[in-house]
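User: Sequence in, structure out. Go.
Assistant: Echoing your sequence, followed by the structure tokens.
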Amino acid sequence: MPATIRDVARLAGVSASTVSRALSLPDVVNAATRSRVEQAAAQLGYQPNKAARGLITGRTGNIGLVVPDLANPFFPSVVKGVQARARSNDIAVFLADTDEDATAEVGLVHALAKQVDGLILCSPRAGDEELVAVAQETKVVLVNRLVDGVPAVTFDNGGGMRQAIAHLAALGHRRIAWVGGPATSWSNSQRFIGLHAAAVECGVQLVPVGQFAPTYEGGVAAADQAVATGATAVVTYNDLVAIGLLARLHARGIEVPGELSVLGIDDIAMAGMSRPALTTVRLPTQKAGALAVELLLELLDNPTEDPGAGPGRRVLPGELMVRDSTGVRRA
């Protein structure tokens, strides 16, 4: 039979209520008593009942994670970071996929908020006002999105795009196409802003091609338009789009990087497996997921702090990964 709280209390020489407080609210129990209780629990292999603990702490021991599309390899990496850090804190993660639907996202978020202690929203498609409303309903941390007053983990889009443009400019490219992502994507607008600023700095021309689905199929659809711009290099919204674009260029007999250099963003696992291997800006997605859990726990432990200041924001740098899909511009 599994050990009970009374077994732990008997071995530690304290009451069952003291065991409960020592394991659920350790700060209110004498350090020596707490140590004795923890040793007894470890010796007996005691596992606290989360439901019972929740009655004392007011917490469920669960957090929610909402992503736009699990089929996109960017998001499973974030999920792994969230789950690993949550597991180390004995927290369960409820995962929801909105299928890139902003309306469905809002409904899922409100439903999930009633069942968890807080939410991590990764690349949410909802508007700022809707996200602020959710943050007033429950504790919220954003990943890859900024909204005033809401804690967030983001990437240095400006720095990453500067590396990308500087790399292409150094290879002699002076006309660079940009294949954008969804109109509702915050990172899409931020990446374009970063690219445009970097293009001005480097004295190159940036040619927007349009907005496409953030998928392999989106890249296939964008390829012909990218070629038609007369650009000698193209930067895509993400790696999936870049890989789709590579497939279409291959089908047309357009040599990469000989005739057209291609550069993606994210550095998903498939980027290094594509042919040619994809040059891309690596984003530390797994680390972002882990940091989001840390921010959420800070918010839960210190609910009176201003979430929009100080520790409420984390910005992670991108890193250019040079592979075979970019090369010197042909004369």
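User: And one key feature?
Assistant: The longest strand covers residues 205-211.
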